[in-house]
Design a protein that fits this description.
Blueprint: E1 2-6, H1 14-25, E2 33-37, H2 39-62, E3 70-78, E4 85-96, E5 100-102, H3 104-113, H4 117-134, E6 141-142, H5 147-150, H6 155-166
Parallel strand pairs: 1-2, 4-6
Antiparallel strand pairs: 3-4, 4-5
Amino acid sequence: RSVILPWMDIIKDADDFRFVIRQELGQADDNSLAEIIPNEQYRKLQESRFVSRKILHEINDKKNMDDKHVQVFCQPIYSVKTGKVISAESLMRLYVPDYGYLFPQTFIPIAEEENCIHTLSLIIFNKVCKYLSEAPAVEMMTVNFSVIELSKREFVTDIMQAVDRSHVDPK
């Protein structure tokens, strides 16, 4: 378990720090992590979580596979043998006007908690399939999925429908 806390003037030494952590985490163990960050940074983190929750619900409600908030960035994978790009890893970012890009560590836990993760994954997967159908130079692209999705009954069906729509070879 982990917690991020704003800077507190009451923390003067390690004992004060342990006391605050116990208050936040209950009985902290050796595997518990805590980070104290400046108040302004903490405020921005809390604000980005609020914005993430709000935008994720909007995305989930609309289920628009071309949603402009969900953006794909590609990390190319080069072959040393051929000197060419052989595949790419897809990286998801949320773009929110007035806030910029939100990174996965901010929005993925919220998307899982709020049951929005499947919609996000379908959007990114659809965008990757569309890209692959339009850019045949890249033969393969990886897409990460949440473990939570693998237990969903509709997961495989939804993924295969996206593959069929884009005419991408699933191999």
